[in-house]
């Protein structure tokens, strides 16, 4: 029996602890290596079943594009499953756009996980992953349910265990077009690949990764393209002693402790006009990880 509604479904953001560009395929896609970690800064979605088969989105926060990843995800799942039901998709958008934190991809993953329950499809995770891969490189990560070491063009996921960490996250007012960053002349495309020996869950390796090893190869092009990225990085560096850009967007983060409370607060009142910031804690798994097997 299909459910009537599902409320308060989280769609968490992610951070790239490092992001190395190790090559480029013949078709132009870049080959990456990056540990992805989910954080507790989330969008919230509410799904209501429709018996007329229609799919409609309702924005309760920032206005989204008319045909976003959430609607595309719902249409694709409906088409592939042959389900006659529809849904009202309500999105309370809290994550900043253009940040490199995977907000749109995470929303789409939560829609797939939620509609799988709402429509009573009972699809296994493997089928949802195949749908997610057709929507975008980051969508499978959020469907996978666990922090992961990501390779290839984003489709190769190896679950990893990371120590829980506090992160100070700042999103400048500016956003960055991903295509311009990946085509920038300053982008390094031949970083030496990380060679993993033994288990990816090796505690010392995970601790090293979460403590600032590596770099984001996209950061120099981003700073050249957008001065605010460098400003945000320096702002965090001055307060926490470290900083790094996440993904290909403009958000920057700093490690801020591993205990029950962060080593310092995030003084949001000192942020530049238009900037957003939040003290976040990493998640050990996606809040909806148990919704697919």
Proportion in helices: 25-40%
Proportion of β residues?
A: 25-35%
- SSE-based structural type: alpha+beta
Rounded to the nearest angstrom, the distance between the terminal CA atoms is 19 Å
Fill in the CATH topology of the largest domain. Answer: Ribosomal Protein S5, domain 2
The strand count comes to: 11
Number of helices: 8
Query: Unreliable stretches, pLDDT < 50, 5 or more residues?
Result: none
Element pattern in H and E: EEEEHEHHHEEEHHHHEEE
- How confident overall, as mean pLDDT? 92
What does this structure look like?
Strand 4 (55-59), helix 1 (69-81) and strand 5 (86-92) form a beta-alpha-beta unit. 43% of the residues are buried. Helix 1 packs parallel to helix 2, helix 1 crosses helix 3 and helix 7 crosses helix 8 (227-240). The longest helix is centred in the middle third of the chain and has 16 residues, at 103-118. The strands form 2 sheets. Strands 1, 2, 3, 4, 5, 6 and 7 form a 7-stranded mixed β-sheet that branches. This protein has a 4-stranded antiparallel β-sheet with strand order 9-10-8-11, with helices on one face. Helices cover 27% and strands 26% of the residues. With 293 residues, the protein is α+β, with helices and mostly antiparallel strands. It has helices at residues 69-81, 103-118, 125-135, 139-144, 178-182, 203-210, 219-225, 227-240, and strands spanning 5-16, 20-24, 30-50, 55-59, 86-92, 148-152, 156-159, 166-171, 244-245, 252-255, 276-281. It has 2 domains: 5-159, Ribosomal Protein S5, domain 2 (2-Layer Sandwich), CATH 3.30.230; 166-196 and 216-281, Alpha-Beta Plaits (2-Layer Sandwich). The model has no long low-confidence stretch (mean pLDDT 92). The two termini are 19 Å apart.
């Amino acid at each position: 029996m299909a459910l009537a509604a599902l409320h308060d479904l989280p769609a968490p953001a992610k951070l790239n602890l490092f992001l190395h560009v190790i090559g480029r395929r013949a078709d132009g896609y870049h080959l990456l290596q990056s540990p992805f970690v989910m954080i507790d800064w989330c969008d919230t979605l509410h799904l209501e079943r429709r018996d007329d088969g229609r799919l409609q989105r309702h924005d309760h926060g920032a206005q989204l594009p008319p045909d976003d990843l959430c609607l595309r995800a719902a249409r694709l799942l409906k088409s592939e499953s042959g389900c006659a039901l529809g849904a009202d998709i309500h999105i309370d958008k809290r994550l900043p756009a253009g940040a490199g934190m995977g907000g749109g991809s995470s929303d789409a993953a939560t829609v797939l996980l939620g509609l799988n329950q709402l429509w009573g499809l009972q699809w296994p995770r493997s089928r949802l992953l195949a749908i997610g891969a057709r929507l975008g490189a980051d969508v499978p990560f959020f469907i996978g349910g666990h922090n992961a070491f990501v390779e290839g063009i984003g489709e190769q996921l190896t679950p990893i265990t990371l120590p829980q960490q506090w992160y100070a996250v700042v999103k400048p007012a500016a956003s960055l077009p991903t295509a311009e960053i990946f085509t920038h002349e300053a982008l390094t495309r031949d970083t030496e690949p990380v060679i993993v020996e033994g288990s990816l869950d090796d505690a010392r390796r995970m601790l090293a990764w979460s403590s600032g090893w590596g770099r984001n190869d996209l950061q120099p092009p981003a700073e050249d393209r957008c001065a605010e990225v460098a400003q945000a990085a320096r702002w965090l560096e001055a307060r926490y002693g470290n900083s790094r850009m996440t993904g290909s967007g403009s958000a920057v983060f700093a490690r801020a402790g591993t205990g029950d409370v962060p080593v310092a607060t995030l003084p949001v009142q000192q942020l530049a006009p238009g900037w957003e910031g939040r003290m976040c804690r990493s998640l050990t798994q996606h809040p909806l990880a148990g919704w697919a097997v």
